[in-house]
Amino acid sequence: MTEDTKPKPRKDIIAKKLGSEMMLYDPKSDDVHVLNETSLFIWNSLDGNQTYEAIESIIRKNFEVPDDQNVLEDITNICRDFRAKGLLE
Amino acid sequence: MTISTSPHQKREFKDLRFEKGYQFFDNAICLKTNLEEIHTQFHYIYERLEIDPNKIDTKDFIIHFSPDRKELYISYENEIQILEQETITPNLYLYVFSFIIPRIRSHFLVHSATLRFGNTLSVIAANSTSGKTTLAVKLIKRGAQFLSDELAPINRNNHLIDPFPRKIGLRDLKIHGLESQAATRQLPNTKGEVKWMFDSSELGPGGLGQAGPLSQVIFLEPQYVEDSSLYLEVSITRLNYSLIEAIKQIPGIQSVELVNDRIFPLLRCFLDHDNSVIKQIEEAVIVYQSALVSVVSGKTQKPDFQLAPELKAMSKFEGTYALAKMLLNGHSEADLLDDFNGSPGLLLSELADYTAHCDFFQLHVGKLSTMTDIVYDLMHKK
User: Fold this and answer.
1) CA–CA dist B59, B79 (Å, integer)
2) Cβ–Cβ under 8 Å, residues B233 and B260
3) pTM for this structure?
4) Nearest to B345 among A17, A21, A31 (CB)
5) Nearest 5°: CA angle at B97, between B91 and B100?
6) Is the separation of the CB atoms in B287 and B267 below 8 Å?
């Protein structure tokens, strides 16, 4: 199965910003998730149009990231985690 | 709502000589009774919440004592309770209030004190015996405005913390230099644990604070001196002295202590060995027409007020989560979750709307004067 590299958050997820974190409430599973700053930035970048590479590019533009850090892998892992938790469409 | 219709028939009385209206959030009641002691107690504690029942639409809260039948009849809305004389609690005002609490829908109620300095409104949240009221009174003496003690009412319509200016109950007058007032400040007609009641205006210059948005929540975390007695803290919806006697008879229970200054009456049951008596307690509670709100086991512990207090910042999520847990402990969990389709997650999500601009702290309890300085400084930094 090929991985969807343009993921989109589910519309029914209730997101509440709490300082530098974000709380997500999933009404289907009744689970609550907390996103740290990095996950939150990626979550906010997911609109169904952005590829992982595009998100990487935005991150590299906005944050001081060492060249040798594998940002793409981090994005992929975080999105897999979102997917595993059922937060994506 | 989980409040059930009572099996008893409504009765009419002609000797309800005492009558006064009170506004408890979205519950406006007209307390009608033939018992002067309950009338006096309520007036003494809730004077600032009195309303004119001729001007505001109220619901009758009837308390009638019948010397012939030796029973007390209590009715509010569709609920009727009839207590035998020997089961009547000496502190009836708490019993009455425990009828009202589960019906409050306009506010979230958190067991805490609420104070204000300027625009900073702080909720000091803690369990009993953590020094919450003592700390609040020290801050009132230093000019803080008082909004509430015992519970902070969070208005669900406008997200503001409202005042709940019932009198402040103090267990220790010496610590506040108020010993000379002991004779005149004891709540009339009470038995058991003594509390002296003061209006906030008698304790400091700040007066009563206005409603406002939540700025800070400070969770008091006691650091305990531990000893070895095991206990179960059993919160129940209705107090009944026969129930206490029945629980005392359960094998494995050494003694039962009534803690009656909580939103729900709490029985602290000291145990011989372990907590395998829960099932028997549950059965007794059902027999005596009450319901369990919560059961917490622990070891008897006393907060150590000699240690150095320590302040730690919490993330907004940690703080919101801790607040939600306190809400569920303070209300009947089932009643509160009724409004959220039974989902604690949805409750947490709504609560996040109230706390997005609030700072959270954990204050490890210790020396009172240092704690007062820490909270005073914190409230002036915001």
Assistant:
1) 12
2) no
3) 0.81
4) A31
5) 160
6) no
**Most A CBs within 10 Å: which of B347, B349, B357, B359, as the mutation test of the A interface?**
B349
Question: Which residues of chain A lie closer than 8 angstroms to B345, CB-CB?
Answer: 25-26, 30-32
**In terms of CA atoms, which chain B residue is nearest residue A15?**
B349
Q: How far is B314 from chain A (nearest CA, A)?
A: 11
Confidence tier at A1 by pLDDT (50, 70, 90):
very low
Which residues of chain B register pLDDT less than 70?
1-7, 85-91, 128, 188-194, 226-228, 260-263, 274-275, 300-301, 329-334, 382
- Taking alpha carbons only, the member of A46, A52, A48, A50 closest to residue A71 is A52
Q: ipTM score of the complex?
A: 0.85
Q: Give the confidence band of A5 by pLDDT, cuts at 50, 70, 90.
A: confident
Token pair belonging to B27:
């519950």
B346 in contact with A at a CB cutoff of 8 Å? yes
A53 at B interface, C-beta within 8 A:
no
